[in-house]
Specification:
This protein is an all-alpha fold. It is 69% helix and 0% strand. The chain is built from ten helices and no strands.
């Protein structure tokens, strides 16, 4: 395990094992975020730069171009989830606190960006961010692979409904009715 951690640290250009201890608290916070497992796994994949964006696919020789399939700009995690026209339209529909935090953060590394968002946002705002990122990714994949296009309003409506259901589930667990 120690060798694996050292190799991961080396691959991510981290200083070494001491940096693993520095990131232990944010990782624990990320895994304790009260979202379904599929959203947690999405966040983990995002932080590990393993989402199948076209820049990652091109780097792995799985795509001929690293351009965004929607707008033609250079694709990346940030472009796909935040900057692309499709994503920006969805982000315009979220509340001001979340939109302001996203707009004011320019961190290019997904893991550091997520950790920074956990620090500056309340838990409920981070849950909303997480679910919205996941929903945008899901909508993009549906459009690219299945040619099923969803409007930003539909994506936003899905997020609001999903968050409402999460709140009901969380409340019922606290009440002991689940």
């Amino acid at each position: 395990v120690a060798t694996k951690l050292r190799m991961e640290a080396w691959l991510e250009e981290l200083a070494g094992s001491s940096s693993i201890n520095i990131e232990e608290k944010p990782w624990k916070m990320l895994w304790r975020t009260q979202v379904p497992g599929k959203v947690s796994m999405f966040l983990w994949r995002l932080s590990k730069h393993s989402l199948a964006t076209n820049d990652v696919r091109a780097h792995r020789h799985m795509a001929v171009s690293s351009a965004c399939g929607f707008c033609g700009a250079e694709d990346s995690w940030k472009h796909s989830l935040i900057d692309c026209t499709m994503s920006r339209c969805t982000w315009e529909l979220v509340d001001e606190e979340l939109a302001q935090a996203i707009a004011s953060t320019v961190e290019p590394n997904a893991k550091h960006w997520l950790f920074m968002m956990m620090e500056v946002l309340s838990h409920s705002a981070f849950v909303k961010l997480s679910v919205t990122l996941w929903a945008i990714w899901w909508a993009r994949r549906q459009a690219i692979h299945e040619r099923i296009f969803q409007s930003p309003y539909a994506t936003h409506g899905f997020v609001e409904k999903f968050l409402g259901e999460l709140e009901i589930i969380g409340t019922s667990k606290l009440d002991g009715t689940a």
